[in-house]
Amino acid sequence: MGIVLRNMIEKNEHIRDDNGNVVKYSKLCPCCKKQFFSTSRNSRFCSSDCNKKFNERRERNKRFYSETKELSRLKARAHALAVETLSYIDYTKEQDPVCSCCGSHENLEAHHINFNFMDNTPANLEWRCKKCHSAIHSSVEAELKEQGLSKYSKYDESFLNLFSPLFK
Question: In this structure, are residues 108 and 97 in contact, taking their beta carbons and an 8 Å threshold?
């Protein structure tokens, strides 16, 4: 619960008549986050415009989710496969997983060297600790930005066509 909402509830800013009955209810609009008063207990929005904006945003998010649901699942499964592959390699070599950059054993993540999360070949995978993993991605994105390129320019064209809804 937000601070504004919490303060509003604690203050109990409902407008009451002389008998103590609530005449207007103090509300917080979920769209514009502004406080408003309503005579109805069931009203959620300060105006019909806010109601419309909120519903449009919700529908847009639902459409995006339905368009990308299968791709997101595939991406999650590909990542899980990368982790399994690295774990198996470490198991067969009888060694503990270690960050390929700093040697840490904590907070390890699977890193795809060519940045293609579908390429789970052992040559394309390495362990990186969270700090090194975010550093490598940040530095590559910064280099590409200096060259005037998008971070998606690292991907193969066929890969981008298939997964374009995820990269909007």
Answer: yes
Looking at the structure, do residues 163 and 84 belong to the same domain, yes or no?
Answer: yes
163 and 99 part of one domain: yes
pLDDT at 3: 45
- Do 163 and 121 share a structural domain? yes
List pLDDT tens digits, range 40-93.
Answer: 888 889 999 999 999 999 999 888 888 778 877 887 888 888 888 888 888 888
Q: Give the number of domains in the chain.
A: 2
**b or e along 45-71 (b: 16 or more beta carbons within 10 Å of the residue's beta carbon)?**
bbeeebbeebeeeeeeeeeeeeebeee
Query: How many CB atoms are located within 10 Å of the residue 86 CB?
Result: 20
What is the predicted pLDDT for the residue at 59?
93
Residue-number span of the structural domain to which 163 is assigned: 70-167
Give the Cα separation of 53 and 15 in Å (integer): 28
